Amino acid sequence: MARYPLDLVIPFSICKNNDLWNLLPAARNVNAAKSDKIPAPELIERQRDRILEY
């Protein structure tokens, strides 16, 4: 099993929430590039199965 750092889907600066539903594994370089951006709903929908698997 690969180990990934956890990333907040909705950044803490936008929504002060560290609940489990807001955490997903993310590659370090992707997490760093994301910064405080919110993922597009289309991206979340395309990755739905993968997200639910985690």
In short:
With 54 residues, the protein is α+β, with helices and mostly antiparallel strands.
Could you explain how this protein is built, in words?
With 54 residues, the protein is an alpha+beta fold. It is built from three helices and two strands. Strands 1-2 form a two-stranded antiparallel sheet. The radius of gyration is 11 Å and the shape is globular. The mean pLDDT is 84.
Write the layout of secondary structure elements.
Elements: E1 6-8, E2 23-25, H1 28-34, H2 41-46, H3 48-53
Antiparallel strand pairs: 1-2
Distance between the termini: 12 Å
H/E element sequence = EEHHH
Structural class: alpha+beta
Number of discrete helical segments: 3
Major sheet, described briefly? 2 strands, antiparallel
Strand order of the largest sheet: 1-2
Radius of gyration: 11 Å
Query: Roughly how much helix do the residues carry, as a percent range?
Result: 25-40%
The fraction of residues in strands falls at: 5-15%
Mean pLDDT: 84
How many β strands by DSSP? 2
Q: Report low-confidence residues grouped into runs of 5 or more.
A: none
Shape: globular
Give short descriptive properties of this protein:
alpha+beta; 54 residues; 35% helix; single chain; globular; 2 strands
